[in-house]
Amino acid sequence: MLTGIQVALIGGDARQLEVISKCSELDATVLLIGFDNLQNAFSGITKAEFTPEALEGMDAVILPAVGTDDSGRIDSLFSSAELRLTREHIAALPKHAKVFTGMAKPYLRELCAESGIGIVELFDRDDVAIYNSIPTAEGAIMMAIQNTDITIHGSTALVLGFGRTGITLARTLQGMGANVKVGVNKPEYFARAYEMGMNPFRTEELKSQASQVDYVFNTIPAPIITAQVIAQMPHRALIIDLASRPGGTDFRFAEKRGVKAMLAPGLPGIVAPKTAGRIIADTITRIIMEEARARRNEV
Known about the structure:
Blueprint: E1 6-10, H1 15-25, E2 29-33, E3 46-48, E4 60-62, E5 73-74, E6 83-84, H2 87-91, E7 98-101, H3 106-115, E8 118-121, H4 126-146, E9 156-160, H5 164-175, E10 179-184, H6 187-195, E11 199-202, H7 206-209, E12 215-218, H8 227-230, E13 238-241, H9 251-257, E14 260-263, H10 267-271, H11 273-298
Parallel strand pairs: 1-2, 1-4, 2-3, 4-7, 7-8, 9-10, 9-12, 10-11, 12-13, 13-14
Antiparallel strand pairs: 5-6
């Protein structure tokens, strides 16, 4: 339980509703900032203005998936007011407090470091990334089906990268009957893809692998689908780039060549916000409970 724990949620999207619900169920004291237009009636929840004073005494501050931009602005689906995180906000937190976000930009990291406040980047955690790979794979395949006139079954699909998302995506495509080729850059990834009955190849061989492809799914956050690679692809090919912005595709050349290419980061929050929210909620509340238990043991 989170009895006696104070949690502030600042901005965000539909995923935060699951976090609010979970924290409330576990008896935390929940403060909402940037939820002026929220229609859901959560009992026992307080709303407040975004002031440093509002954060005094908070054990945890929960930011949206992207945290802040490079100037401290926080997006909120539920408010039209501008939310901007400053040094004064972070400095108002108790030293034991934690700031939770999906990923943190240098601005947020620097603010937390200056005040000695711990920051937890959820998307860096293996457990969160693996859970999130499920809605990511489903969303990517949904996009593939919507944007082509062929079935996944019997198609040739290239999956670039064989990390947490790449493995789930490749396995799902294989289960749907696709001929899956996996671009890897480590011997152990090559061996694992081979063991799973896929067709692995080195990423430096991508150009030679591109000529007969129907789908390319990229998970590598580096320029890998270059103009030279795209030039080898048939016009029917579809590129779905799942890497964080700006992705790993030369989108300008793809458009010029007539190859459809789509940048699709953050799919869990788009295609399955309830599931993605539960993943975040379960992880955050577990960490908060572990931290609270550790503090009690120190006393």
